[in-house]
Structure formats: structure tokens, C-alpha cells
Fold this sequence. Notes:
Blueprint: H1 6-10, H2 15-23, E1 41-47, E2 53-57, E3 63-67, E4 72-78, E5 84-90, H3 97-108, H4 130-133, E6 140-141, E7 144-146, H5 156-166, E8 169-171, H6 182-194, H7 215-221, H8 226-240, H9 253-262, E9 268-269, E10 282-288, E11 290-292, E12 297-303, E13 306-309, H10 311-314, E14 323-329, E15 335-339, E16 345-351, H11 362-373, H12 385-396, H13 401-413, H14 427-433, E17 435-438, E18 456-459
Parallel strand pairs: 1-7, 7-8
Antiparallel strand pairs: 1-4, 2-3, 4-5, 6-9, 10-14, 11-12, 12-13, 13-16, 14-15, 15-16, 17-18
Organism: Ammoniphilus resinae
InterPro entries: Integrase_cat-core, RNaseH-like_sf, RNaseH_sf
Region (Disordered): 1-31, 196-215
Amino acid sequence: MEQKHFGEASKRYGEEAAQKARHTGKGEQNEPTIIRPLKRVQFDGHRIDCSIAIIFKTLEGDEIVVIMDRLWLLALIDVATRVVLGYYISYNKEYSASDVLHCIKNAIMPKEPKDLTIPSLQYDPHGGFPSERFSDLEWALWDECLFDNGKANLAKQVKDRLNRIVGCSVNAGPVALPTRRSYIERFFGTLEENGYHRMTNTTGSHPKDPRRKNPEETAVKFRISAEHLEQITDVLISNYNGTPHEGINNLTPLQCLEQRITRGMFPRVMPEENRQEVVFLSLSARRVIQGNIKKGRRPYIYYEGVEYRNEVLARSPGLIGTQLDLLINIDDLRIIRAFLPDGSEFGTLTANGQWGVTPHSLQVRKQINKLRKLKLLYFTAQDDPIECYHRYLQEQAKTNRTARNRLAAMNRKSVVKKETLPSKEGDMTAQQETISNFKHFETEKDRNNMVNRKRFKTLTY
Length: 461
């Protein structure tokens, strides 16, 4: 009976066996081999098998070295050549849609080597990333993307950017069936065995792995930080791209890619007007202009607990009640770009008070608002809420691992210097002088109202 009813019989041996029987081995097997670079890519996230320490100072000035939650590695690999296009390390407990967008951005934008500070750590001269080695692959785009059904991957914002900016189709595949994404799964396995599992702070592949020897104590003792892991990961992936791979006739992924390009198999390239970083990390929203002449409240829009305005809006009480379409850079909420209902550009709105000074992400803004609502974080209009939140995390990080990861994420972004925004006087003129061409990607629902929209421009940081 098992031989006649294979699918039903497999249920006797567990759900995993039954699922594989349902989704693999049937129909036309292994479609014609994909040989054109970037025709199809695979994406996935993998929790790195290493304990990582964070070093920070308390408000009293004491240095603390404690363990963080394990980090996530997100990566995109090309099916045809097995070359890794780009990656991103997420410090979140579970990676988010924003992390996925950062990975997509890193896979498309030109890559530069990191400055290595770990003694003896170096790049293999035969390795590298596609955009480093081949100028024709800077801003290269893929046609199809395979990933799993994780919430972050299926987020509307992620699918919208893949469709509108990358211009690729999306294939989420069956739930909990990694065999459909075997190349990226094997890559993670190779990276662990040849890299992370050889580190003294490895957690191994399971709790009883003999390679697991007090990883947390080791990470603290040798002060192995997220910055170290970032450098090691960059070198490991770069070297992987220069290592012979049996799946491509023992060529290295970069050699295979070079041969295909030499034969004229060039992928699509992103148009120049779409290359601003904000494209990858943008979010569309709509808000009504508020204000009250009788109460002396000048016009403003309200977004995530903060007022936004510019000089033009502040002097335009006639616009109260008008809807504005907003384009938000989720990585920097100091400013928001606004458009009138007819699609014409209204200008750049700046966050009120100290919110408009320190760069901060949408995720950080939401965390601050939540803590303030719970009365766990206090600050006045004169205080910088980002600095107050940073001090709060320093205090919480003594006992809370989630706070440690958030503190590490903030420290990573702290290398972005505060930039001086255009002064309120002559606000619109200053903005026009510092902008660069950029295309407005609106939602499908708004398309009919935006046919006559103008090209808008982007402040550079």
C-alpha cells in the first residue's frame, strides 16, 4: 500500500516527511538550468552560532562587558553562479522588514571593503563581491526572488520595493520547506562550518555540540563584539565568493560570474534616477494638515507623535484640512518629504524641536513613544529624546539582553554624524540647492491621482 499511495503513507513518518512528499519530486523536475546571472536569487535569514559581547559604560562611568542576544545574518545569493550579492547583520531579536530592505540595498549598491582592525584578518585576493570586481554589476538587479514565509519577508513594504524598485517577481514558496531554497541554506551551512564554528565563542550547531565550550564566558573574556563579527562576516563572505564550488564545476562563484558576463549575459541595471538610498528605505503615508488660527496654532502635520512643518506651511493657514502625501525615509525621521493631492511637490518638513536634530529610525521613534506612554522614559521639549533613550538603554543593558542589542544597534548607527538641516529662513530655497533627482514611488491606490506629479529631489546626508 505504501508504494501505491506514497503521499498518504509518508504521513506515518511525521509532518516533515509528509510535507516533502507533497511539495517535492512531482511534476516536471528541475526546470532548465539557470545560467544567466541574477535571473533568480534566493534570500534567507540565519541566526549566527556565536555568542557576542557588548562593551559600554554606565551613567556612572563604569565599564560593563555583557552578552547580547545572538545576531541574524541576512543574505542574497545568485542561483546561476552561487555568488553572494550582499548581506546585512541584524541586531534585532527577530529580523524585521527594515532589515530585509537593508539587505536588498546592500546587494544592489556598490560594495566597498571594510577597514579591518582584527590582527591577521585579511581578504583573499581572489574573493570579493560582484559590484567590487565588475563595474558592469554596480546597481545590478535580479528578475526573481525566492524566500520563505517569514513575516518580515512578506511585509507589504518589502514586496512593494521588490516589485517597484528591483522590478522582480516574488516567490515565497511552501511554508517550512527549505529544500526550495537549497543554495542559500547550503551557503549558511558552509559559512558556519568554515567560519563561525571555528571561533572560540561558537555556540555550535546544537546544545550538545562538542565545539561549544563556554561561549558566553569566552566572548566576555576576549571582548568579542558585534563590530568584530561584522568584520569577520565580511571577510568570510568575500572569501566564499573566491572559493571553488563543486556545484559550478569547481569554478569559484566570481570566476563563473565573469565567464557568463564575458559571454554577454548581463543583468538589468538600476536607472540612475532611482539610485538614491532613500528609495530602498522609504515609506508612503498620508496626513491631514492640522492647526487652529483661533488658538494661534500654526499649520503642521503629525507623524508618529511628532509635529512637522516648514516656513511655507507655517504661513499657509488656508491649507488646514488639506491632505499631504508623505515619503518617509524610515532610517532617518528628522525630515519628511511632502506632496499636495495633485502630485506637486510641497517641500521638506522638519521634525519639531530636538526630534529634528539627531538622526533616528522609525523603529527607534516607536520604541521611544512606547516607553514614554508607559511612563518609563521622561524628557522635556529641551531634551534630545534620542540621547535620553540612549541613556535609558545603557541603564537597562545591565540586566536586559534586548536592551543590549538595541544599544549596540544605536552605537552602530552613531557613526552617522548629525547634519545641519536648512535654516528656517529661506527654507525652500536651501532645500532646492541641496537636492538631487529622484523618482516618487507611490502606492497603486494613488497612481491615478499622481499622473501629473513632478520629479522630486532628495536631501543628501
